Amino acid sequence: MPLSTIFDIAGSAMSAQSVRLNTVASNLANADSVATTPDKVYRARNPVFSAMMQGMGRNAESVGVKVEGVTESQAPVTKQFEPGNPLADATGYVYMTNVNPVEEMANMISASRSYQNNVEVMNTSKQLMLSTLKLGQ
Amino acid sequence: MPISLDSALGVHAQALQLRSRRAELLAENLANSDTPGYKARDVDFKQALGAARSNAEALKTTQPGHIQPGAANPAGVARTGFRNPLQPSLDGNTVDVQVEQAAFARNAVDYQASLSFLSGRIRTLLTAIRGE
Lengths: 137, 132
Fold this sequence. Notes:
The complex is a heterodimer.
Chain A: H1 2-29, E1 34-35, E2 45-54, E3 61-72, E4 79-81, E5 93-96, H2 101-133
Antiparallel strand pairs in A: 1-5, 2-3, 4-5
Chain B: H1 5-9, H2 12-31, E1 41-43, H3 45-57, H4 69-72, E2 80-82, H5 97-130
Antiparallel strand pairs in B: 1-2
Helix pairs in contact in B: 2-3, 2-5
């Protein structure tokens, strides 16, 4: 019965969006991280979504969303002159993370809205299924 | 004349199947609203219901060797198409969340309408059976 697969679809989307919220939380928590070298500094992480498909071409059946992986942002990291910082290198510079807090906040709002949308879809389908069960009574 | 449950319930049983299929497609669209490259899909409800009805009504088989037309294309399987995007995103995603939400809400109401038509039919049958 197709209505019950909506639970799988919306559920997969909710788990994908919660991975996105997790990366946002991790990015915001590390928004002020510094490191001695550019390689060691924390870089903003972002999940990559893709549609799960069964079958091919026009008749392909989608069964929801999956997270392909988490990528690290390749945006340049900035260096800052902080000779007093214990993590500063020989010339007195520390490398700042490339997390953009404003971008992350917008990302968080978008993720939570998408999550809420899927909760609504699930609720509506549940109502429809319950009234289908009561059919003829 | 024997009572056929199919004809007593009319078009509403098929409509219900199509509505639930459409709800599934719209839920997929909403689930993939942030997936790069995802193309929103939908069914043409009028055309799909027409196809389901003509499947059910036309092509009566008179010999046991005749191929059943309904077997190859059951009523629940509707042809899906891609939605014409109003404003596609740069990442190739064509889901417009507001449009999909509105379509999902309307589809849910239509589903409930089909349900109440069906329960009306069932109540009619029950009244006839009990002879009240």
